[in-house]
Amino acid sequence: MRYLPIIGLFIPFLLSGQVGGSNGYQMANVVTNARTAALAGTSISINDGDISQFFENPAILDSVKKGSIFFTINPYFADVSSYTGAYAFEMKKLGVVAIGLNYLNFGSFDATDATGNLTGTFNANDYVLSLGKAHRLGPVVLGINLKLAHSSIENFSSTSVIGDIGGTFDVSKNWTLGMVFSNIGGVVSNYNELTKETIPFDVKVGTSFKPEYMPLKFTITTLNLVNRNVVNESDGQGRSNNQVDKVMRRVNFGVELLLSKNFQVLFGYNHKRKQELKLDEIGGGAGFSYGLMLGIKQFSVRFSRATYHAAGGTSFISVQTNLNDFKKIL
Question: How many CB atoms sit inside 10 A of residue 267's CB?
Answer without folding.
Answer: 17
